Prior knowledge:
Distance between the termini: 29 Å
Radius of gyration: 32 Å
Oligomer: single chain
Number of strands: 28
Number of helices: 9
Amino acid sequence: MSSAATSVTDQEHLWSVSEHLEDILATVRPLEAIELQLLDAQGCVLVEDVTVPVSLPPFDNSSMDGYAVRVADVAGASEEYPAVLTVVGDVAAGESELLHVGPGQAARIMTGAPLPPGAEAVVPVEWTDGGLGEGPVSGMRARSASPEGASGEVHVHRSAPARAHVRAKGSDVKAGDRALAAGAVLGPPQIGLLAAIGRGTVRVRPRPRVVVMSTGSELVQPDEQLGTGQIYDSNSFALCAAARDAGAIAYRVGAVADDAETLRATIEDQLIRADLVVTTGGVSVGAYDVVKEALSSVGDEDEAGSGIEFRKLAMQPGKPQGFGSIGPDHTPLLALPGNPVSSYVSFELFVRPAIRTLMGVDDIHRSTTRASLRTDKALTSPAGRRQFLRGRYADGEVTPVGGAGSHLIAALAHANALIVVPESDESVEPGTEVDVVLLG
């Protein structure tokens, strides 16, 4: 945390978005690396280069179902004048004892099977009569139904150059090559490659565990009956989903009532499974905004580096914010405002970069672009505030969605971008080039 952040906050001072994010990232460090099984490592970040111990493929093999042949034996072959070869047997995938293909011979071969000694190319079964003595066939009969297909003669109707339909040893990767570099995020293709080169475990930074909880006695869980003055808890669902989208393992805690002791106990209970805690609601200046009261004494706040600070930011929506670290392990905590749009925008600006930093990825921010503002009238923005408006971006243009109200969650559901209006601008005319944060 910066020296400015550790001082008592001036209630009239407005921190910039950049200052607040800088202080947050100064408290967050990438998680320690661990060794994980491949499937457990999905979504994690490699901490070391992985080299290839064995070439892929490890041997020359067929890319087609067909016949392994010598080039000279099928030279000039056609349907009218086919090459007639003696079939010496089958070569299936996984075969360890290989046949030898001599002059005038062929071996029936399956996709992925090793090229037998003596053979120089593979002719697809569609270029042959399949050993039936008739015209071209469309495929092979099952060996169990037609074992005689592995013997007798085959008529080949087309010639084939050397190495035709043969996957060369090491044509994918060669032993000693770098398969994946440190910093790579392990998705399905990367996990498939690791398995293909024989790696069962890998050293990675684990996905951060993020605990998300809403606060407010007015909150009711979906599917329950609403009472007078109650609303459904949407924030914890939205932020939990956003944390997962960012790459975290997210745990959602049901809404906590406006009681400081209950909230304090709930947070302390969750620290055992949290690399980051995110709360939403209770950070403003109302008489029932108990997050400040509760977080003032969570964990070992007397230890150096612990404690939560609450600030006002020069932004809209999302002016009230809190952050710091709590508990014996100095677990980072971000306290977000309770209005749905405010909490989501705050997540994108502050929590997502924190999660990505814990993961150890280089790119911690959403992609941004410039776009032409498409609107019927000028947009207004409060002086001295950086405003983030929901928008729909397509083909270099962005159109505002809904109004500026921080409660308009329906508009947020239809947005795919945030329109950024700088602190210095109080009005933005149609057609103006604006910065756009792309969501997703």
